[in-house]
Amino acid sequence: MKFLIVLLSLLFVDNGCSQANIKQDTISIDYSTHSRRTFKHISISKKSISVLNKRGETRLIKPCSKPNWKSILKALKPIDIENIPNLKAPSENRFFDGAAIANLKITYDGKTYESQSFDHGNPPKEIAELVKEMLSISENIE
């Protein structure tokens, strides 16, 4: 009987943090990377995906498909967004032009959470899946 109560309580706790309770219309995620020669800015919300690959170019804006948004939410779910400013970069190649400088910014319900700079291609492990998903989506939109 105790096992059943514990199991049911775990199910309810998990559902309390489910994607259904997230104010999805108030989420916006931006990833940018730049160096002397490269630049990329990706912005994803429930409504659209915006990609700018070079400074001065026209921004590509497409509607965000349901599967793309679902994959973003899945990658976002395990992240403690309030802790994003405290994440430490696993490498420092950006300090000597060994890698482009990257940043992740999540805006949720009017609050903005921005990471410290990290090497493009080597984000902190806590946000690595989200960054990977954003890059994949940005490369596959037409």
UniProtKB/TrEMBL annotation:
Protein's name in the database: Lipoprotein
